[in-house]
Amino acid sequence: xxxxxxxxxxxxxxxxxxxxxxxxLAGCTAxxxxxxxxxxxxxxxxxxxxxxxxxxxxxxxxxxxxxxxTPDKNAAAEMAFAACASExxxxxxxxxxxxxxxxxxxxxxxxxxKQVLNEKGHLEILPER
Length: 129
Prior knowledge:
This protein is mainly alpha-helical. 66% of the residues lie in helices and 0% in strands. The chain folds into two domains: 1-31; 42-120, no CATH class. The chain contains five helices and no strands. Helix 2 crosses helix 3 (73-83) and helix 2 packs antiparallel against helix 4. The longest helix has 28 residues, at 42-69. The radius of gyration is 26 Å and the shape is elongated.
């Protein structure tokens, strides 16, 4: 099958080079370019902070209660996140209307909050404007 692409003296034919070039170009254009994140307005930033504070205010006591039930900090954090799922969903829903889900950072925020809960046992409340 590839014999037609390799010359009699073992050199690679220009057809093979063209095929690899087309395949490389197709691979480069097959993935769409990422879209930039949309900037949140000052009003929505205030609402986002309020929702994040509500989530934090739910997580902290839920985490403290969960820690009395299990010595595992990660398990306690997961229990707290489960108890505060409605607050997380409210924040996620609003953020998703402002920023595409692929760029919104809620997963990173959640991971950061879990790390702070595990290390300090409490969360900081953001200043609301």
